[in-house]
Amino acid sequence: MKFAVILLLVLIAACAAGSFITQGQTAAWYAGEYSERTAGLILALHLDDVFHSLWFIVLTGFLCLNLLLCNVLRLPSLIRRWKRAGSEEEIRKYKASGSCTGTEDPEKLFRKLQFRRIIRSESGMYAFKNRAGIWGAWVCHLGILLVIIGFGLGQSLKQEYTVYGVPGQSLAVGDTSYIVTIDKFDIDLRNDDTVQQYSSEITVRNASEGTSESGTVAVNAPAKMFGMKFYQNSTGWAADVNITKDGEALQTETVCAGNYLPVKDKQDLVILFNAFYPDYVMVEGQGPMTASSELKNPAYLYSAFYQGQMLGMGVLEKEEVLTIDEYSVSFASPQPYTLIQIRKDPFAPVALAGGLVTLAGLILAFYIQSAWIRAEQDQEGNWTVEAGSRKGGVLFRDRFMEEAGKYGYVQVGEDKE
User: Fold this and answer.
1) Measured between alpha carbons, how far is 167 from 337 in angstroms, rounded to an integer?
2) So what's the pLDDT on residue 281?
């Protein structure tokens, strides 16, 4: 237990460091943000990528091993305790939380306290309930172990991809044989013009097998196809980039904001679509902005590069054209694009099972209250009833004494008058 506590404290400190220190940046970035000594310490301890560092993985492995061995070592004694929990011999060993005396047959009291299986013996009667509660802590530890294993292996072995585009486009899913076709993309707005929901209707095709599946993906409502989950992640603006050469149409392609388009017959010449402004205004001291989300005065921020060197940057409003030598560039047909995240985690069911097992363990530990009761009758016909519980003993005693009082029993040591 001491070792487990130490591991948990170290892991909590590591998680805190991973939350406060920006992860995944370059050495130069940390040197600029922190002092030279602090930056060196962050890089030396791999605090720039805490959750994938070797020492974090090793400590997590030790915690899993600790939980596993604790459960394995406790299992034989727990099984023995569970088997003998309801025996008369064992019940006589338990220390009572409450004790009372009276003349009424205690069977009604037993049943009022929800003791169903009442056993009578030569000395009186006894009962035990909720033996399953004994397993609470053990089941909870098992669930936590499954959660850690499922989440850890899932983070290490999961596959994640991102596709984005406009309706009508078909997009390859990374290096897989799957192709996502965006059939429809809807943005539902509230009365105050704020977004209520994004949703995409998509078709996923396995090119190697020729099979396909269709579904709808919305925020907080992923779709599952081909063993993968598809999440509606975000949206942005896309537009058609039209390029002509010497007045003749050369190429037209739909480009999402933030992406670039090399000129078809001159690959060193690249047009970058930086941003889109649906209702364009130029604010002095702040630059280009949009006054609203409505398509009132569309404008496009672009950058032009040749052989990696910037030629220029500017804003093109509707029907304006950028001319570079014999090439002319214009933007048209703005429309929202959808960004879909695709995830395949083979260990997600393990983590889910661990969460359910942990929940079951917590219910067993805190809700299923193991308790016992015994009653003995003396030669004068008086009954002495004792009861107790190892979990919530004080609360159980108070309920026991309250119910016993209703049947004329009085607490041992109190004046019966």
Assistant:
1) 8
2) 92
